[in-house]
Amino acid sequence: MELRRWDVLDAVSNAFQREPMVVTLGGTTRELAALRRSASHLYVLDSMGLPPAIGVGLALGLADSKFDKVVCLEGDGSLLMGFSTLPTIALTKPEKLVLIVLDNGAYSATGNQPTAATVVNLCAVASSCGMQAREARTEAELRDGLAWARKSAGPLFLRVFTSTEAAKVPFLLEDPVLLGGTFADYVARNK
Questions:
Q1: Are 124 and 159 in contact (CB under 8 A)?
Q2: What global pTM score does this model have?
Q3: What is the pLDDT of residues 7-54, one digit of tens each?
Q4: Residue 47, exposed/middle/buried by CB under 10 A (0-12, 13-18, 19+)?
Q5: Beta carbons within 10 angstroms of residue 62's beta carbon
Q6: CATH number of 5-190, picked from 3.90.1720.10, 1.10.620.20, 3.20.20.10, 3.40.50.970
C-alpha cells in the first residue's frame, strides 16, 4: 500500500517539532497546516520551485544556531521546476539541510498530470550534488529515513513515494507576508 501524504506529513512534523520547516505549495501546505499548524513552518504559497532555495539560505544562515536541522518539504514537480538549486547545495554544503521530497509522480494542483520524476533517479541527482540520499516507500523505510535525517550531518535528501490521494482540508488563504513574519519571529526567538 502506498504511503498517504497526510501520514508522511504527520511523521515528518513529529520528527522535527521545533526545527524551521519550509513547506511547499498546494496540498502539502494545506494538509500540514490542517494537521499541525506551527509558527516553525514557513508555508510557501504559490512559489513552485522555490522552497529548496529558501531552505538552503536558512540552513546556511542558521549554521551556528541552536536548531539541529532546517527541513524543506518539497514535491517532485516543484523540485523539477527549481532543479537549479541542487548544484547550489553542492557548492555551499549546508550541513543542517534536510530536503524531503514527497514524490507522487504527479502535478497534483493541476489535475495529476505525470511529472518527469517517474523517469529520473532523483536520489542519484542529489548524490551527484553532494547530498546523502535515501528513498522511502514504506512506513518502516520512512521511520528509518527520518531517524537517519535527525542524526546525520547534511546536506541530506529523502525521497518519499506517496499516493496522489489528497485529504479534504480547507484552502490556506492567508497573507504570505503575515505567514513569513510569524515564521521569522519564531526563528529569531529560538535560534
A1: no
A2: 0.94
A3: 999 999 999 999 999 999 888 888 999 999 999 999 998 888 899 999
A4: middle
A5: 20
A6: 3.40.50.970
